[in-house]
Design brief:
The chain is built from six helices and eight strands; from the N terminus they run E-E-E-H-E-H-H-E-H-H-E-H-E-E. The chain folds into two domains: 65 residues, Double Stranded RNA Binding Domain (2-Layer Sandwich); 89 residues, Orthogonal Bundle (Arc Repressor Mutant, subunit A), CATH 1.10.10.10. A four-stranded mixed β-sheet has the order 3-2-1-4, with helices on both faces. A two-stranded parallel ribbon has the order 5-6. Helix 4 crosses helix 5. The N and C termini lie far apart (33 Å). Helices cover 32% and strands 18% of the residues. The protein is α/β, with parallel strands linked by helices. A hairpin with a 2-residue loop joins strand 2 and strand 3.
Length: 192
């Protein structure tokens, strides 16, 4: 099926860097096409570089204005000064289906929640909730593509690449509260 063809990632020159955030260290890798990796699971630079190499991303070099710009946006997000990321994203290596899911997810605004089923419907694949969840589990740039804003039916948390503790943290940061029954609700009404 052509919707599931995978294009090979090609990253001629990757820049990387990281910052400390309330979630811990967040590290990014940026190709000439945009941000290709965001990680908050690799606690050290060495671990992040090992992760990049394991994904076939490289060669890598530290720093660069693109990296500084992305890190500045992430810093602003955690300070409560930014609700939308404007940096370019490089989704090389993703299937057409994954690209559709991630593109749709990127449009979910700060403070908003959608379900896996909502996303499946938005990409005209209403029965593909599980496939949507799998695509989000392979999101190479969490936070920038806000897969944490996608929850399971009935307001349940659902999974998250970085673990549910990170998902809870990000949802609380964006003004959501977990009810006694484990369902998530917005503390404020936002449009977008």
């Amino acid at each position: 099926m052509s919707g599931f063809s995978r294009t090979a990632p090609v990253h001629p020159s990757i820049r990387f860097g990281g910052i400390d955030t309330p979630m811990g260290k967040v590290q990014v890798a940026v190709s000439p096409r945009g941000v290709c990796r965001v990680s908050f699971r690799s606690r050290t630079q060495k671990g992040f570089l090992r992760d990049l190499a394991g994904r076939g991303i490289g060669p890598v070099e530290p720093g660069g204005k693109e990296v500084r710009a992305v890190l500045a946006q992430i810093r602003e997000y955690f300070r409560g000064e930014r609700e939308r990321f404007t940096c370019r994203i490089d989704l090389a290596g993703r299937t057409d289906f994954e690209k559709a899911v991630l593109s749709c997810t990127r449009k979910v605004g700060f403070g908003r929640l959608v379900s896996y089923g909502d996303l499946a419907g938005r990409i005209d694949r209403p029965r593909a909730m599980r496939a949507v969840g799998n695509a989000l589990g392979r999101n190479p740039v969490p936070i920038l593509i806000p897969c944490h804003r996608v929850i399971a039916g009935g307001g349940r948390l659902g999974g998250f690449t970085g673990g549910t503790s990170f998902k809870r943290f990000l949802l609380r940061h964006e003004g959501h509260a977990e009810g006694r029954t484990g369902s998530w609700n917005s503390l404020h009404d936002r449009n977008g």
